[in-house]
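Working notes for the structural subgroup meeting. M.R. asked for a predicted model of this chain before we commit to crystallization trials. I am recording the input and output together here so anyone reviewing the notebook later can reproduce the run.

Input as submitted:
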Amino acid sequence: MTPTLPPPVTDGDVLVRLPATGASWPTTLPAAPGGHLLTLTLGHPALLPAAHGRLPAGYRLVGVATDARPIGQTVDVYVPARVRDDHPDWWLSLLSRAERVFDLRLGPVQRVLAAELALHRRPPTDRTA
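Returned structure, recorded in token form:
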């Protein structure tokens, strides 16, 4: 049986991998463009913000890798093409911090990151950022 790809993402969407050090990584994120909610996944449980720590407005945590299968000291931000197009200064600021950018138009990238992409595409259960 051949594995099938998840539903395609919008053409031009990307997943941006940022380096993260400890639970203070949220302070390194550029302010999210107004009116947008960007989703994040963490590469290790040690990166969870402290109980008193909060994510900046406009960002929402949707998943964390487990201790058993960590990705590393990274934060992945799902960036829709329209956000990149509408907010080029923000995009360049985020891009300057990036360790890697995954082009989600590519089938192999979609296959490898399928479980993580599903977290980013899942409808939110609440509206908190």
